[in-house]
Recover the amino acids of this structure.
């Protein structure tokens, strides 16, 4: 765009008087003809002329004899040239030059006096002296307190060490007495205790199959989706649990009979063992406490521990408790006989029943693993075929997209030709055969693109359906793999051997 014959009106801002009548031209209008007067503007081959809109300078309303400043660098309302504006003469009062003087006068009313300044300094001196004196007094008192408390702490700690040593001596004496009586009690009831231990060992070893069975049930709870089936394996595991519990109940009842025969011997032995264990534990604790020093690494703070009183006895009752246990054991010692045959028959019968259920459950596991493995292989085959079809469909989608992209260039050519031919001048804008053919070509290409897009949508829908089926197959494969891992690796691997030693010898 080329601008010419544009007046800058520079004289308006240099103090030059305006033209006769005090008016100047401001707006312009479009004209397709030639320039009018001396105020024409040429823009892109067209001439704009200034019309009869004028602005008149506003008179100075500040009053007084001071004349307003005459700035030389202002922009007009259009932001085009310096010097153009709605006002030919800018008028500003000169009284603003008195502002710094007035501000200085107002500031004098907010300042402090020299006496205030001196008083503030003296206050600070006095405050510092008082703080130092107070700090020195606190330090002296703290030093005296530290010395007193240190001496008292050392004496208290020495007395506590002496009393801990005396307590250790008493505990060691009573432990020796209890140990001697316990050995005599064990020797007298050795035969009866041997049979009781065999029965207890058999009962304890039933926890092995129960633990394996519980772990299998727990692991199989990790199955997912459709594989959470109430199958033969689960039924066999439930029957095995019932059988183990039945054996445990019979052993417990027999053990109660054995314990009844033992009578006082068993109770006395239990009390002695418990008292001996408590003595050992107490001796270990007191020995550790007696060896603690201020430099020990295991010491720590336990706030409020001195307010807690967990003690349940005093020295007199503590010694009487051990003495009564020894007397009860001495009066309860007697020889007893046991019905070993009944206990031995019960152990053999339980071993046979538990082994039978164990074998049946293992067979159910193997059958279920075979079924799951076959299903897994079939799903894997379908997944491979689906993935191949997805690959082929993706290649087909890319081919359709390429075909759609290839139609873009011919469409651009046809539309560009139509657009270019639309710029022919006057009568040359003829609806000729090329025009009809170009319009027909554009419609044909757009129709082809629409058909290809529809086919692309169908292909993408088919692709999405394949992806969904692929995801389902993969999900089901993961479920089957998880079930196989649980049944074969976690469960069946634990059940290779019968986890009972004493019961297995009875088979």
């Amino acid at each position: 765009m080329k601008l010419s014959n544009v007046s800058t009106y520079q004289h308006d801002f240099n103090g030059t008087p305006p033209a006769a009548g005090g008016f100047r031209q401001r707006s312009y209008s479009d004209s397709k003809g030639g320039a009018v007067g001396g105020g024409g503007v040429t823009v892109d081959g067209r001439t704009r002329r200034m019309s009869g809109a004028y602005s008149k300078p506003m008179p100075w309303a500040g009053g007084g004899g001071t004349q307003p400043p005459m700035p030389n660098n202002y922009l007009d309302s259009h932001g085009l040239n310096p010097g153009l504006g709605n006002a030919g003469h800018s008028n500003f009062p000169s009284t603003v030059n008195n502002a710094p003087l007035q501000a200085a006068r107002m500031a004098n009313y907010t300042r402090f006096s020299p006496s205030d300044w001196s008083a503030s300094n003296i206050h600070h001196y006095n405050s510092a002296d008082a703080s130092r004196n107070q700090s020195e007094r606190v330090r002296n008192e703290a030093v005296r307190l530290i010395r007193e408390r240190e001496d008292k702490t050392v004496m208290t700690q020495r007395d506590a060490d002496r009393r801990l040593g005396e307590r250790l001596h008493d505990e060691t004496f009573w432990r020796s007495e209890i140990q001697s009586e316990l050995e005599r009690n064990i020797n007298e009831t050795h035969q009866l205790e041997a049979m009781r231990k065999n029965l207890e060992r058999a009962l304890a070893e039933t926890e092995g199959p129960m633990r394996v069975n519980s772990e299998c049930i727990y692991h199989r709870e990790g199955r997912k989706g459709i594989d959470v089936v109430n199958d033969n394996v689960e039924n066999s595991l439930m029957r095995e649990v019932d059988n183990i519990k039945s054996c445990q109940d019979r052993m417990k009842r027999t053990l109660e009979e054995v314990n009844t025969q033992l009578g006082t011997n068993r109770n006395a032995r239990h009390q002695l063992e418990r008292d001996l264990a408590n003595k050992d534990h107490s001796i270990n604790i007191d020995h550790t406490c007696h060896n603690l020093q201020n430099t020990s690494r295991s010491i720590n703070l336990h706030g409020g521990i001195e307010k807690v009183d967990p003690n349940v006895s005093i020295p007199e009752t503590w010694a009487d408790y051990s003495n009564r246990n020894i007397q009860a054991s001495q009066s309860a010692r007697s020889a007893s006989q046991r019905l070993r045959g009944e206990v031995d028959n019960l152990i053999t019968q339980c071993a046979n029943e538990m082994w039978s259920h164990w074998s049946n459950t293992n067979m159910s596991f193997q059958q279920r693993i075979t079924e799951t493995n076959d299903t897994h292989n079939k799903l894997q085959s379908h997944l491979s075929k689906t993935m191949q079809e997805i690959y082929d469909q993706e290649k087909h989608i890319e081919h359709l997209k390429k075909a759609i992209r290839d139609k873009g260039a011919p469409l651009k050519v046809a539309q560009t030709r139509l657009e270019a031919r639309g710029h022919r001048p006057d009568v040359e804008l003829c609806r000729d055969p090329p025009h009809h053919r170009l319009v027909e070509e554009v419609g044909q290409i757009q129709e082809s693109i629409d058909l290809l897009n529809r086919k692309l949508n169908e292909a993408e829908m088919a692709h999405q359906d394949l992806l969904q089926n692929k995801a389902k197959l993969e999900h089901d494969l993961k479920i089957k793999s998880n079930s196989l891992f649980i049944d074969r690796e976690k469960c069946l691997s634990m059940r290779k051997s019968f986890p009972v030693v004493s019961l297995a010898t009875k088979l």
User: Anything to note?
Assistant: The chain has eleven helices and five strands.
